[in-house]
Design the sequence.
């Protein structure tokens, strides 16, 4: 009896050309597979994330979701991630499974808004609410965060933060030259003495970033950000483009006074350059009375390959 197969598509996200940005595998027809089988497929692809669009639940329908997705890294299922959100929505749109316009994705973090354009070459944009509001870390914890990226006190600008919009991150602002000098973390965040009690969402990643200026540029020009993201806890030494980290960064920019305390601030992130996978992420954060209230991240998606993968055996 021949093995059963599932169809899949690989797309590159946060780029306008193939073989840049962050690759994503979108696997279809996996509704009846176990979590163990889905994890095995994610391990086989060995990308930062693999997604599985699955049937909407009655709760999803009641909440107004347009589609449901499960998201896996090579190490574990996670509640939310940015480039999988945009890449999955793009793939569903090209297959005619969702239409253009404002769509709602159901995932482990709840509903995530996605603006899906009719033009497949245009950028998609996700919108997420703060779930772990920006938390300023102590001086000692900031030193520990810097050590996770192989950096020292002279590299650091201000305190580190923890924040997230469905998947939380540590954020470390550094002097511009230190971004390139940073190295993938040699240990997990959970192995440090950083106090992360009370966080809603899982955290085992670090966003090292540099800013061209300390505040919004003149004439409404966006902040320019150079970033690298390390995710040792989920089997990803370094990620070439990280939408969830970009969303959380918006919260940090407001908390640290780099973004407007009221209204909207735009920011542009260059990531993946040091990996040879240049990525462009466009963000904007809305704030009220000094606190971020919504974060948006946009980027383009391009197709790379498609095919079939064998269904893994039951464990």
Sequence:
């Amino acid at each position: 009896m021949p093995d059963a197969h599932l169809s899949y598509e690989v797309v590159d996200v946060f780029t306008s050309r193939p073989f840049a940005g962050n690759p994503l595998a979108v696997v279809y027809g996996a509704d009846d597979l176990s979590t163990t089988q889905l994890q095995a497929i994610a391990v086989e692809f060995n990308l930062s994330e693999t997604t599985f669009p699955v049937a909407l639940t009655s709760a999803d329908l009641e909440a107004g979701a347009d589609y449901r997705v499960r998201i896996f890294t090579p190490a574990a299922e996670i509640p939310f991630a940015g480039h999988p959100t945009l890449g999955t929505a793009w793939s569903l749109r090209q297959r005619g499974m969702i239409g253009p316009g404002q769509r709602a994705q159901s995932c482990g973090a709840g509903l995530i808004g996605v603006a899906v354009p009719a033009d497949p070459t245009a950028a998609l944009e996700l919108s997420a609410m703060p779930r772990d509001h920006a938390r300023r870390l102590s001086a000692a914890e900031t030193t520990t965060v810097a050590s996770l990226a192989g950096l020292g006190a002279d590299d650091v600008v201000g305190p580190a933060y923890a924040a997230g919009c469905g998947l939380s991150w540590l954020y470390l602002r550094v002097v511009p030259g230190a971004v390139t000098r940073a190295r993938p973390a040699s240990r997990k965040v959970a192995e440090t003495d950083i106090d992360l009690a009370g966080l809603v969402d899982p955290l085992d990643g670090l966003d090292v970033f540099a800013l061209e200026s300390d505040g919004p540029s003149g004439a409404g020009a966006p902040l320019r950000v150079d970033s690298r993201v390390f995710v040792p806890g989920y089997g990803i030494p370094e990620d070439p483009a990280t939408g969830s980290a970009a969303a959380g960064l918006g919260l940090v920019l407001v908390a640290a006074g780099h973004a407007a305390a009221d209204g909207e601030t735009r920011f542009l992130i260059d990531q993946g350059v040091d990996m040879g996978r240049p990525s462009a992420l466009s963000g904007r954060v809305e704030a009220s009375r000094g606190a971020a209230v919504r974060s948006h991240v946009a980027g383009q998606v391009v197709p790379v390959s498609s095919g079939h993968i064998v269904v893994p055996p039951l464990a």
